[in-house]
Amino acid sequence: MIEVINLTKNFGKVEALKGISFQIQPGIIFGLLGPNGAGKTTTIRITSSIIKPTAGTVKVDGVDVIKNPGEARKRLGILYENAGLYRRLTGEENILYFAGLYGLDERTSRKRMEEYFSVLEVDYAKRQAGQYSKGMTQKIALVRALIADPQIVLLDEPTAGLDVTSARKVRESLNFLKNRNKTVVISTHLMSEVEALCDKIVIIDRGLLLEEGTAGEIKAKYQTSNLEEAFIKAVKQ
Amino acid sequence: MKTILIFFKELKEAFRDKRTVIMTIILPTLLIPLMLFGQFYLMKTETEKAKEQEIKLAYEGPQEIKMFLSSMDKLVLLDYTEETNKEVEKGNIHSALVIKDGKAFIYFDPTKNASSAAMLRIKTTLLLLSEKIVESRLQNMNIDPAIVKVFEIKEESVAEPSKMGAYFAALLIPLMILSIGISGNMYLFSDIGAGEKEKGTLEPLLATPVDRKEVALGKWLAVSVLSFVSILLMLVVMILTVKYGQPLFVMEEQMPTSFSLTSLTMFIILIAGLLLSLSSGALQFAISIYSRNIREAQLYLGYLPMIVILPVVFIYIVGIMGTIPKWAYFIPLINVYPVLKDAMMSEIVWNNMLFAMISNLILVALGIMIVVKILEREDVVLRT
Q: What is the pTM of this model?
């Protein structure tokens, strides 16, 4: 479970988050929806304790990310929009390196890695990451995020820039994670993706939480048949 | 444990990068000895060539001197004309000699090696000839020529040939070690800090449960070890070149190029090299991780050799003229030069060694602390 409590973040004079609060229940796919610059990535960065909030806090399974960042990070797997693979290492080496950083032994890591490779249809992991396409990179980065078997997975724009097939594979893997009772937080501005995958959504814009609920609830509130329409109405309000 | 994991990952990545391999292994093992001894070799061959070269000399003056000059080997005598000096300038004639009113004028072009060499040869010949003429004139007057010689000057070195060799080596090798330690792995340093930011790999790394200190230590150890490897390779190749390559670059028999290193000297050189790698590693890593991107890191790191080498050059000159000042041993990085020089000359002052070691270790600690602080600063970590 993730609890976001009165989260505020200022970058100089810019208020990126203005005291937002919401909760993410375990075992669901949760959508963090908002236009560019809404504060989605900032929320993910605070949750992963890369940056500190100006006020408020985030709790990951009850662990305060400000007071105990190391413990909080152990419970999270994160996929960034810029996957950040080491280009001179192979896909396997990238994953096993991170597994080592989480303190996993090689045997367990390899077993888990092979399992995710088969789900995501990865058969190129012995090649150096510098030779991968965007889709290939993203799939390896996803396995890297999952290698420590975290209970919560944060995905920042996981399908951005991917071709149709790769994007579909990533989306399928999210359902695979949900079936394993993982909590998946996906930050995106793709409405169709959110509508198809997410059990619950928050819409944020300019650092403010505008809406919270299921896709159906939000559509009903704005009396529209699709989420995109509801999103635009929410942002314009 | 995580530090070791990060350390080995960094080494693996570094050795898969052609630029790092070139800078860490190929440059110190091939290029530097080639540059260094290639220069000696060229100087030697050029000097030998100059000795063997036929001199074109334009002459105007007494006939008896002209006859003497004509009898010399490898000398072509031409008549001095109004155009001669221009021809010397063009390089068509090496030198010109005009003797009149008891004065000998040698015209030459100091910007041309061949002309300078010709001038020296003519000057030496004239001095010898002058002595002979004086001698023969005194003999004609039934006076012993020894009467004009007050004393004969003979220079005798009391230094062992090996110490002279060490002196020459001590002028050069510490500078080479310092250059490699300060600037040899600039690309690697810029990649390991700023490069991680630029490529987006730093954020996922910092989002793992690994402590910032372990990240800093692992990376710093890796770059420092690679830097030390460069220094070691350069040392080994230099020692081997001096040992086996002497005939290639010895200019004169008198010039001492052989020197032996005692185990204590070798030990101090290795410790100084290691300290240099660690302290310069910490400083360069701190600069790199602070930088926005690889380009900015290379810009900052590019100034470092200048900042270090300029005071070293000052100490080098002071050292040639007298004693190295005490303060030189207190400044980290810079003090590696006097420490190495003392060790190679077997003039070790243990207090100075200790000061140098402590100051470099302080720089290491400061560097690592700065890196850890930077890794905790989101404004620096996230800026690219």
A: 0.80
